[in-house]
Automatic annotation (TrEMBL), chain A:
Its main location: endoplasmic reticulum. The gene is YIF1B. Has a role in transport between endoplasmic reticulum and Golgi. It is a multi-pass membrane protein. Keywords: Endoplasmic reticulum, Golgi apparatus, Membrane, Protein transport, Transmembrane, Transmembrane helix, Transport. InterPro entries: Yif1_fam (IPR005578). This is Protein YIF1. GO terms for cellular component: COPII-coated ER to Golgi transport vesicle; endoplasmic reticulum membrane; endoplasmic reticulum-Golgi intermediate compartment; Golgi membrane. It comes from Electrophorus electricus (Electric eel).
UniProtKB/TrEMBL annotation, chain B:
The keyword NADP does not apply. This is Immediate early response 3-interacting protein 1. It is found in: Membrane. It holds the Pfam family Yos1. The chain crosses the membrane at residues 12-31, 70-90. It comes from the Eukaryota.
Amino acid sequence: VSNYPNPLGICILESNVRMRNPAMDSSEPGQLFDDTSTSAGPQGAGHSGLDKGPVAYTGQTVLSDPMSNLAMAYGSSLASQGKEMMDKNLDRFIPVSKLKYYFAVDTLYVGKKLGLLVFPYMHENWEVCYQQDTPVAPRFDVNAPDLYIPAMAFITYILVAGLALGTQNRFSPEFLGMQASSALVWLIIEVLAVLLSLYLVTVNTDLTTIDLVAFSGYKYVGMIVGVLAGLLFGKTGYYLALLWCCASIFVFMIRTLRLKILSEAAAEGMIVRGAKNQLRMYLTMAIAAAQPVFMYWLTFHLVR
Amino acid sequence: MAWQAKTANMAFTLYALIQTAVLFTNAIAVLHEERFLSKIGWGAEQGIGGFGDDPGIKAQLLNLIRSVRTVMRVPLIIVNSVCILLLLLFG
């Protein structure tokens, strides 16, 4: 298996992606979604203004009172001020605009990514395309990490776990909450461990924390497949499906992380001597090997 | 029942995570600079070895310990006091 880098070293977006582009995004290319939040505002105010106009002329409703008009105007201005302040402050704690990038997906991307998670052996080019120094939205590049699949897979995993226990008459409603918080805690521990080891090995990488959360969340897809196979075909089916998904997640993680953690030369397949690159390779393999362990640890008690 | 024991083992709640984090940070904060770390060769001055581009794992670890102790000293006092208060009141 060999990964050929692009001859020019840059990623060229396919032409059908470019044709899809103007059809989907009617606004400027920097925007990920069509912004519909503000379009309803002026129309709503206009409609309510029109509605209250003829009512006010009858002089029999509360709205004709100038004092309550003033109070209403003051209240709405206070509400909009509060909303602005909340938006400004929320952006400091949770990077909302950065989160939006990870949810800019479409059905085609989700389908291709799920196929990649289960069968990563035929895919050749694992590099993330960049557009003027910022990574391209996941909608246009199947290699970019996203948060939609991990979030949906997490919720589906909780539901499938409840289903699995229900078929064995072991289900109780508080089990769902317990399983959810337990899986979340293991996710947090794994992300913290990866962050710590990345810091200790002094890797200069552009992997953000959210990227790591996304990569750690991809294993839930394999877990769901394993548990469903265990429900349908018994323990043999569970073990077979889990083995297949563990192998594919292992290969997927190694091929994705290799490009981000290792230096350029080593990622292209040439053997680079040196303790630093060897340590980084060990780190990549350790992160990839932790995925099957977690996959088995979080599902083995569900299948009897 | 066996499955109940298993799920009790598995029920790793968020509260347990917070407890673990506080305990770990306390453990790092308690390591004394002169009496202990320098004696075993993990003092602050031994971490800043060379100024090459590759600090190495031991230097990074010592750096991490020193920064955690400096940064988390005051917040740990607050968090520990809150924990003591809560445990006194609610057992």
